[in-house]
Structure formats: C-alpha cells, structure tokens
Automatic annotation (TrEMBL):
Signal peptide, first to last residue: none
Domain (YcaO): residue spans on this chain: 367-734
Protein name from the UniProt record: TOMM leader peptide-binding protein
Annotated transmembrane regions: none
Organism: Spartinivicinus marinus
UniProt superkingdom: Bacteria
InterPro entries noted in UniProt: Bacteriocin_synth_cyclodeHase (IPR022291), TOMM_cyclo_SagD (IPR027624), YcaO-like_dom (IPR003776)
C-alpha cells in the first residue's frame, strides 16, 4: 500500500497570487513562489493523498517531473508530512517541575469558548477541576492562533458587555496563557495586543491582504501536551482574583520543547480604535522652549544620560509584545573600540505588498556610539523613531487638493527634490533599483484629492500641510508601486524632550544636505587634522583602523548653512577598495567630527566579518569593485589640513532649546523654513518628530534644481553649476 501524506496543519496557508503562497506556523514561515506549490496545497488542503494521486490530478496542467520535484520540496520543508510517521511534541524533562504544585480546585466558574472545536479540551478542564458554566461573565477563549480573525468579534462583544476574558492557546510547541482582558478597568483589549503581535510577524500583513486563506493553522497537540497546558492554566487562574481587581496583564509562554516559562508584559494602546481615544496632533500645547539643561554631550546634546534613557524605555524590548524584539551587538570580529547594536527589523517598513516586503525584511534599525550604553540607547531610540514613523491610523487634518489648499500647502517635491528627468524615466529607474530608497515616486498631481497632515513652522510659528503619504511610512494606498512618496526617515528623530528630538532631526537634515552637495558635485574638500584635535577616542580609532590595514581620515563638507558637517572615509590600504564613509553634523565641532567617525564604525563590521553576501547588489558592487583611485573627491584636497576647533566659532549653548534656536537662526538667515511633524505615539510616550526643510537635499539621488547646483558656486567650490547629466554617476548607497 502506497504511503499516505497530508498537508501539515501546523501551518496557515494563504494564497497571494496564482503563483505565490505563504505558509506560517508559530515558529517559522515559508514563501513559495511557484504555481505548482499553490496547486498542490490548494488541491489537497483537507484530504490525505499519495504520490500517484498528486500526479494523476495535476498532470493535465503540470509535467509529472515538475510535480514530483515540488512534492519532494514540500516534504523536505515539512509542509507535507507522512501519515505513517508518528508526530509528537518532544516535551522537555523540566516541564514537570514548572507545572508542579497545581491547586486542587478553582473557586470561580468559567465559560468556555472554543474557536475551533477540540474534543479533548472540554473533558480535560472538567477533569482538572474547572467549573464550566454558561451563566458567568468570565470566559476562557481557546485558540490555535492569537491573531485568529474571529477574535475581532469576540473582543467587541466582551467590550460591549464589560465581560472579562482570558486567551488560552494549549496547542503546539508553545502554550500561551493570557492576557486577562478586563473591560472598563483601563487595561488593554485584544486589539491592543494584536497590533503589537503583528509587528513581529511581517507575513501577517500579507495574510490580511491575501486573495485566499487556503487553510488555518491547527498546531500539533497530544494528550500529554494538552494536560500540561491545562495544569498551567489552572495554576495561573488560581492566582487571579477577579473580585478584587487583580489580573494578568501579560502573556505566559510555556515552551514545551525547551522547558522554559516566560512572561511577556502587554500594554494598553491609548489610541486603540476599540478601547481608546483617537489621537489628534495639537501643536498649541507643544513644549519646545523649555530650559532642559544639556547634561550629556557624549555623541550629542542630551538632557539626560544614555543609561537613564535606556532604563526608561527598555520595557519596549520584547520579541512578542514589544516594538523591538531584542538588542544585539552585531559584530563577531575583534572590534574593541566599536560599539554597534542592532534592534532588529525596521518596523516602519511593514507592507501588504510582496515587492516591498522583500525590501523591508532586509532593513534594520540600529545604534552606535562611543560606549555600549550609547549604542544600546541609540538602537532603542531609533527603533522607537521608526515605529513612530508608521501610519498608526491617525486622522487626516484635511482632505483636499493642493490647488484648493493654496499657500497653506507644501508641494511634496519641494521636500523630495526629484527632477523632471527622473519623473520621465521613473519606470526604467525603478526596474533597475534594488532598494526602496532608490525608487522614484509618481509625479504629483496638484488637482488630486488627498489626505493632508499638519506641520508646524519653527521659524514662522504657523501651521501648514503636507500630504499624509509623504509624512508617514506605509500610509494606506491601493497600489504601493504608484505612490507620491516613499518611506523616508530623513529628519526623523526621537528624544527625551521635543526640543531634543527637533535638534537631532534638524542636524540630520543639515548633514545630509551637505553630503549630497559634496558627493554629487564631486567637490574636493580639506582634511581635518585628527592627530592634533585632542581627542583620546579618535586617537584610539586611528590606531584601530591602522591595525586593520585601513585608512581613516575626515573631510570638512560644511556648507553655506555654517553648521559644521564632516565625512569620515576609510578604505582597504592593500587594494584601495572596500570604501566606506560616514557623515556627522553638530553645533559642537568636535561632536560633529566624532559623529562622522562613529557612523563609519557602524559600517566597518560588514567588512571585518566578511558579510558582503548579505548586502544588496548596489552596495556590494561599490565595496568590491570601486577603487579610491577612481573617486578623487573621496580623498583630501591638496590644501593644508585644518583644525576645525579653530575654524568654527566656539559658541556652545547651555540648554537644548537654545541649541534649537541657534539652528532656526541659521535656517532663517539662509531663507529656509524649518517645519516639524509630531510623530509621538501615546502608547510609547517618547517624543518623536520629523523635521522638514523644503529645499534642503537628501543624500539619496534626487537631482531636481536648487541647492544641489547653487551652493557649490555660492561657496566658490565650482566656477559654474553642473548640468544634471554632469553630476556624479555613482549614487550614495551607504
């Protein structure tokens, strides 16, 4: 008798297109991009089968050899499993100790709600002393998946009836219990929880947008695993007293295979559409001109130390309920003076579109600094910044066209600065690029009805409006390949105060404007005298780079804005390749120089750890093919080295707000307005802003008219402006 097989029910299967399907389980995921996979999984989703049946039923549309190869691939991936093989959960020996001391009885009656009927759960609960009744407010909802769409209705019903309920997943390798939702008690609801859970499951967004869910997951369960799950549930419920208000605000995760019991705190979202209040931006109460004293200058002006910042927000680090899965030092090489931490996938780049998802999964958030504390705080703050960049269902301030809004509207291309040539060649440019930052959006239609968000001028103290699609990452759109703007973190920053966030964001705008003007015009700039700058950390780095047979020097690229900006450059001295560069800008000249080198430090581990194969092809080609000999603008000019401490005014502010005022003074003098968009999220609390300065350049390739062409002539670096076709053919890719 031939072997019988079945589709592995531990996975959810969702069809995206005729030839694309995703499979999700509690521990892994697959993207299958061949029509044959879709056909096998769809045809045999609910029946057992043998190889002969597959070939017989599909040979009219696929060659038998292709069917067999696809079948073997599904078997090797465990998406198709043999009925003849026993499938058990290998329960860890420590589990019995974790669930010991189970109470003998429970005093409260509970209502059982099973989203998927299981003939074992009901009798097991009774056997273990649960008092099941339909005449009680408290419910236990048994699920296979914490994101089951049926929970939307259950959540709404329980909120309406003000009835407490508990989630319970007894199936699979990982048992989950909680949270306990208590409506009316200022606790979270299921929608609050689901919002965070999806952040860590990028494919879940694709499932929401899938053309068809072929089969919902039904994780493996045995009598032994279910018994353990029920005993743990009983132990948890015995510790909860609904009458005095004590409740479980976390998810308890019991890993049966690893023998671990972990608790993951869950938090209410004040802006939750089901249990919270809509969040509206109000600039009238914005506290910018406070007198927060600069208490920390290591790496920038801060109102508190990196340690205090990290301690305040580290609760957001959690692989299940946080916005950051973990912090990880991301180099294995001997990188003693380099401090770099990754905070995981860039959460601002969620998507329901497969093309975008493929780009976004490779994008990460991170932090760097002169110490472990700085780097960890930086990674945490950048993750908060990227989370806050996302569209979180904020209401648009206005729905109108640019023509209708008139002079209170800002044209988005005055902030992006794409050229007519780029718009005309958009399709071919986008087909060739491998990273989202290289994409050219569609040309803006001034008569199109759009959502607009309010931004506040820090110079003219007035409200203006920008398209919401420009302001927020992942703003809803039917066709993500035809957007008027793509996700852009330029000018976004988190801070301990609004003033601190504005300062960091505006410095980034100035830094990248300087980088673009220098790079695309191939300007030769003088070298900074690092040996006589009087900085021990920089001296240590000079020795370290030399020990790795790499150069290290810094060029002054400060523009007409007058705020010190620098680029640090390093290349492999043995072959003149592997060129990396980093930018830095600050009111404090020494901090600006340090920042450029510290950004360089963030890139160096890629080369030291030999991770080039993990990069997109543009960056890989730059590092492996380009020689410093072919890019003279990356080398110091022939002029004497400069000591920037003597070159720029030593006028350091004493408060964060006075530093912001200095920035706005420089902008006003250059006749450039500076706006801020409040991105702060109520469920986080840390101030986050996007600073916007129409006319300033991004360092991505955006070659429209303006400062890119006029500043080099104004500064005396060029006798006449280049034409667009004369600009540097190589784009900034780091």
């Amino acid at each position: 008798m031939p072997n019988l097989y079945k589709i592995n029910t531990s996975y959810l299967y969702a069809k995206l297109t005729s030839n694309k399907l995703i499979a999700l389980s509690e521990s892994d995921s697959f993207l299958l991009e061949r029509e044959i996979f879709c056909d096998i999984l769809t045809e045999f989703a609910n029946v057992s089968f043998n190889i002969e049946e597959i070939v017989s039923r599909l040979s009219n549309i696929h060659p038998p050899a292709l069917i067999l190869r696809a079948f073997n691939k599904l078997v090797s991936s465990s998406l198709v499993i043999s009925l003849n093989r026993e499938h058990n959960i290998p329960i860890h020996t420590d589990i019995t100790f974790l669930v010991n001391h189970t109470p003998t009885s429970l005093k409260d009656k509970v209502k059982l709600i099973e989203l998927e009927k299981n003939c074992t759960i009901h009798p097991l609960l009774i056997q273990h002393g649960f008092k099941l009744s339909n005449n009680t407010d408290f419910s236990i909802v048994v699920v296979n998946d914490y994101l089951d769409p049926k929970l939307v209705q259950i959540n709404q019903t329980q909120l309406k009836n003000q009835s407490p309920w508990l989630l319970f997943k007894p199936f699979g390798n990982q048992v989950r219990i909680g949270p306990l939702f208590v409506p009316g008690n200022n606790t979270l609801c299921w929608q609050c929880l689901a919002y965070r859970l999806k952040m860590h499951q990028p494919f879940a967004y694709l499932v929401d947008n899938a053309s068809k869910v072929i089969k919902r997951a039904k994780p493996l369960a045995t009598e032994e695993s279910l018994t353990i799950a029920v005993r743990q549930l009983k132990k948890v419920l015995a510790e909860i007293d609904l009458k005095d208000g004590s409740h479980l605000s976390s998810i308890l995760c019991l890993n049966l295979v690893e023998g671990k019991l972990e608790s993951h705190n869950a938090y209410k979202r004040p802006q939750c559409p089901e249990c919270g209040m809509p969040y509206k931006i109000d600039y009238s109460n914005l506290q910018i001109n406070n007198e927060s004293t600069i208490s920390d200058c290591s790496g920038g002006y801060r109102s508190t130390s990196p340690e205090l910042t990290y301690n305040k927000y580290q609760y957001l680090i959690d692989p299940i309920t946080g916005i950051i899965p973990a912090l990880r030092h991301y180099s294995n090489a001997n990188t003693a003076p380099l401090f770099n931490y990754s905070s995981g996938r860039n959460l601002a780049l969620q998507s329901k579109n497969l093309f975008w998802l493929n780009n976004h999964l490779r994008s990460c958030s991170g932090g760097k600094g002169k110490s472990t504390q700085q780097a960890k705080a930086g990674a945490l703050c950048e993750a908060i910044e990227r989370y806050s960049m996302m569209y979180h269902e904020q209401q648009p301030c206005k729905v109108a066209s640019l023509v209708e809004l008139g002079n209170i509207a800002i044209h988005p291309n005055s902030c992006m600065n794409f050229s007519e040539q780029q718009f005309a060649n958009r399709e071919s440019i986008n087909q060739q690029c491998s990273s989202f930052y290289s994409l050219v959006p569609i040309k803006f239609d001034s008569h199109q009805q759009l959502d607009w968000a309010s931004v506040y001028s820090l110079i003219n103290k007035e409200i203006k409006y920008l398209p919401s699609a420009y302001c927020y990452a992942q703003y809803p759109h039917e066709d993500e390949s035809a957007l008027i703007a793509y996700p852009d973190s330029n000018g976004c920053a988190a801070g301990n105060t609004y003033a601190e966030a504005i300062l960091q964001g505006s410095l980034e705008l100035i830094e990248r404007d300087a980088a673009a003007i220098w790079w695309y015009n191939k300007i030769l700039r003088p070298e900074v005298d690092l040996h006589n700058i009087g900085n021990d950390y920089i001296a240590t780095l000079l020795d370290f780079y030399r020990s790795k047979e790499r150069s290290l020097f810094v060029l002054d690229i400060t523009t007409d804005l007058g705020i010190p900006a620098f680029v640090a450059v390093s290349y492999n001295l043995s072959n003149n390749k592997e060129i990396i560069y980093g930018f830095g800008c600050h009111l404090n000249t020494l901090i600006a120089v340090e920042r450029s080198i510290i950004e360089l430090n963030q890139l160096l581990p890629i080369l030291l750890d030999k991770k080039l194969d993990q990069l997109d092809h543009q960056l890989n080609d730059w590092l492996t093919l380009q020689s410093i000999d072919d890019h003279p603008y990356l080398l110091p000019s022939n002029s004497n080295k400069i000591n920037p401490l003597n070159h720029y005014p030593d006028d350091h502010p004493t408060t964060i707000s006075s530093a912001v005022n200095k920035i706005t003074d420089h902008f006003a003098k250059a006749e450039i307005d500076l706006f801020m968009l409040d991105l702060t999220q109520p469920d986080i609390g840390m101030p986050v802003v996007k600073t916007i300065a129409p006319g300033l350049r991004h360092f991505w390739r955006r070659t429209g008219p303006g400062r890119l062409y006029t500043v080099p002539v104004k500064m005396g670096w060029l006798d006449s402006a280049y034409n667009e076709d004369e600009l540097n053919p190589y784009s900034i890719v780091i």
